[in-house]
Design brief:
It comes from Chryseobacterium ginsengisoli. This protein is mainly beta and 323 residues long. The chain is 7% helix and 43% strand. It has one helix spanning 2-22; strands at 27-28, 39-42, 47-52, 58-65, 77-78, 86-90, 97-105, 108-111, 115-119, 127-131, 136-140, 143-147, 152-156, 162-168, 192-195, 199-207, 214-215, 223-228, 249-251, 258-262, 268-276, 281-289, 293-295, 302-309, 315-322.
Length: 323
């Protein structure tokens, strides 16, 4: 008798579980959840098929236009003729809509949780140049003189969006560039590149989620870097400093705590940078007044370079010794 009761209990629980399954439709699709848990993300204008994970007697699919505010006040609209287990949506016409399905099975009627058809908000790539302080001078829009021995790190501003890159040291003849184009930097396919020689640098990049969707902003987005032994440069390999001629006052020198930089005629300096002998930025001060003291007591004893720029954009370089 006890065995029979256990069997009947299990049978009853199985029946309840079946009923629960019948009343909980779940939408699935090949791309659902690949980037965001409840979204289908399209590449360009591709199509996608939504379906339920279980079979039901009847189906009715609905769509709701996306709204930036919460709650979404747009109505759910039944899709004409969408009464089968599957629904094909398109990246051109269905992007930024929510979809759900209502099903019936015996005496059960239920709705699925909605999913959204989204288009990936591809940010156009852009290049960020990371210069070593004291090793560069801008000589025109998008053109810089760089000290020999220094480097400039070039980065894609949207590294999470883009996958394979093609980096160039000059403007290629065509886009996409031929594999034999001499402007291509061999092996440079990441989202950053470190430049150490003269060239006109830029890149062509393809999105990681949609490998066939690529972007090139044109030669106006390239940056010209001219490496050489310019008169403002430090010899980074030996630490020998070649200072540009200047008449700035820097005192006391050596110093253990406070340092005064500048001259009365300039009044203010938009930027003052303190750099160690390897070219590393140690301290920086904005809107410096010549009569203000800069506290250098926290610096490790040694020799440092002070790079100062006045209101006219003229750059001065001095050495000082921290005791």
């Amino acid at each position: 008798m006890k065995t029979k009761l256990i069997f009947l209990s299990l049978l009853f629980l199985s029946f309840l579980n079946l009923k629960a399954q019948q009343c909980t439709p779940v939408i699935t699709s090949p791309r659902l959840g690949t980037m965001f848990p409840d979204k289908v993300v399209f590449c360009n204008s591709e199509s996608e098929t939504l379906t339920t994970t279980q079979t039901y007697a009847t189906y009715q699919w609905y769509k709701q236009e996306w709204d930036w505010q919460t709650p979404n006040t747009n109505p759910w609209v039944p899709i004409t003729g969408a009464t089968s287990q599957t629904l094909t949506i398109n990246g051109s016409t269905d992007m930024l809509y929510y979809f759900k399905v209502e099903v019936t099975q015996n005496d059960c009627t239920a709705e699925s949780e909605p999913v959204m058809a989204d288009g990936y908000a591809y940010g156009l790539p852009f290049m960020i140049a990371d210069f070593q302080p004291g090793t560069f001078e801008e000589i025109g829009p998008g053109e810089y003189n760089i000290c020999e021995g220094a480097s400039v790190q070039l980065n894609d501003g949207f590294p999470l969006v883009y996958g394979t890159h093609t980096w160039f040291k000059c403007v290629p003849a065509t886009i996409p560039a031929s594999s034999t184009d001499p402007c291509i930097i061999p092996g440079a396919t990441g989202d950053s590149y470190t430049a150490t020689s003269t060239g006109n640098y830029g890149f062509y990049a393809c999105t990681e989620y949609c490998p066939d969707q690529c972007e090139f902003l044109g030669d106006f987005a390239f940056i010209q870097l001219n490496f050489g032994n310019w008169n403002f440069c430090s010899n980074l390999s030996t630490g020998e400093v070649k200072l540009k001629e200047n008449s700035l006052n820097i005192y006391p020198n050596p110093t253990s705590q406070f340092l005064y930089i500048g001259r009365e005629s300039d009044k203010k300096y938009p930027e003052v940078s303190i750099i160690d002998m390897s070219g590393k930025l140690i301290k920086q001060k904005k809107d410096h007044t010549y009569s203000e003291a800069i506290d250098v007591s926290g610096l490790v004893p040694g020799t440092y370079i002070v790079v100062s720029k006045n209101a006219d954009g003229k750059i001065f370089k001095n050495k000082f010794i921290k005791k």
